[in-house]
Amino acid sequence: MKRYFPAVLTAVCFFCGCATQKPPDYTMYRAHFPKSVLVVPVINNSAEVNAEDYFLATVTQPLAERGYYVFPVNLSRNLLYESGLSDPGLVHNAAPQKMGELFGTDAVLYITIEKWNTKYVLLTAQTTVSFTYTMKDTRSGETIWQNAHTMVYTPHSQSSGSPIADLVVMVVNAAATKAAPPYMPLARQANVQAFCVAGTGIPCGHYNPDYGKDSGKFVGLREHK
Question: For the whole prediction, is pTM greater than 0.85?
Answer without folding.
Answer: no
